[in-house]
Structure formats: structure tokens, C-alpha cells
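Order emerges. For instance:

***
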Amino acid sequence: MTEPRFTAADLTYIAENFLTLDALCEGRAESPSEVEELILAGWLPGPAYVIDGGPLADSELAARAKIAASTASEHLSRLVGGGFLVAEKRGKRRYHRLASPQVATAVEGLMAVAPPVSVNSLRSATRSELLRRARTCYDHLAGGLGVEIAGALEGRGVLVRAGGGYALGPRLDLLAELEIEIDALRRRRRPAVRACLDWSERELHLGGGLGAAIAGRLFELDWLERRPGNRSVEVTAAGLTGLRLMFGIDAATMGDEQQKQMRSKSN
């Protein structure tokens, strides 16, 4: 059976139109490259289904943007008039979707270069900061911790940069220390190694079978714990020691600079 192939526009359309970025991270994927991986593995549907199921109702868009329905209606009308969105009526409700893959590509590009959202208080910044420090992205690690682990694996020779992403390197002894069988991962349909550009760190983190295996092992060792209510993860006391010894990562000080900036702005 020939595996389906998708253009960059297809994948960006899926990432932008099927789910919000937050929802993609919550349960499925973080970037178009990971969307492709999950489509091929059968975790996400292909573009035809996604396009049919993608539009969102005015009320849902207003709720996600945390604005009044009347305000959302005005903004949406302008976006439709400008050719950015397409509206359709289903019964009593009006739904909107991106007008084309080209619009989705433009939005994706803007997100990649957009400056960080300004933080006005510690309370409003807490959830965002926790997600930036360490989070799950489908079944692997992202955020500062995910990027740090990928960098440590690269430094140890487990990973090497190749074609703008990652490939397995010549030294896999660290994986044996973690009791991860790389040969078993290679036999699976899912790619063993997949690099993804982390949206918060603007650097690569590790996905694919290996990324999932490492995340799963760290949870098994009780080095990490999931926080209720969002996809951020907490490094445990055992994890502080384990991450330092295994990867050379000082998780205790991770994100300190961002915290200083937030405190400065809140005073």
C-alpha cells in the first residue's frame, strides 16, 4: 500500500484549520511535520476529512478568543471581506474556515516570526510560562525541557543534524542506559527520529518513536509528572537529579530569566 503524501500547504492547512495550535499540542501534534507523521500513522485523518470538519462556529471562535460575540462577529466579517476566511451557514449557526491553503501558509509564517506576547502580570503568565518550560506534545516532550534534551542527545552523539532535522548518530549508549531498544523503534512504521521546530523555543525538539520512548521512560522513572488541567509537566525531585546525571540538564534553573522578566513587569 502506497503511503499518502501531502504538500506543505496541505499540512499547514490541517494544522491551522483542523485544530488550534493549542489543541494540536494538547492531544496530537505541534507542527505540520508532526501532523504528517500522525496522518501516516493513522492518528489523524487526511486533508479531505479535515477540510469538511474544520470550520468553527462564531460562538466557539469568540469563546476561544475570549471576546464578546458581537465583537467576534465584526472581526469575522472583516476577515471574510478581506478574503482571509470563508463563511457558511449550517442551520442557525454560521461557521468560518480559512479561505485557502495559501492563507494558512501566510498565518503559519506570521506565527513563526511573531514577537512573544507581552506579559502584564504573574497570574496571567503562569500557565504560559509552565508550558514554555516543559510540556507534552502528543506523546513526546516539548518546550524548554524538550529542546534541552534534544540538545543533550546531540551533544552525546545520539542525534546528528541532517537536512534541517535530526538523524540517529553513531553513539547510542545513552539509549541503552535508559533501556530503550532502538532496533525495535526502527522496525515500526512510525519514524524513529523526527525533529520538530518548537513554537515557544524556536529550536528543534525530538519527536518520532524515539522522542515518545524517552518521554515515556522519564515518566516511568517518576522524573516527570503531568500537571492537571494543561499539558505542562513538572520535574520531580528525583528528576532534578536524574536529568542532571543523565543529560547534564539543570532543570532547577530552567526558565529563570523569563521569571525575572515577568516579575519586573509586574512591579
About this structure: Confidence is low (pLDDT under 50) at residues 18-27, 47-53, 257-267.
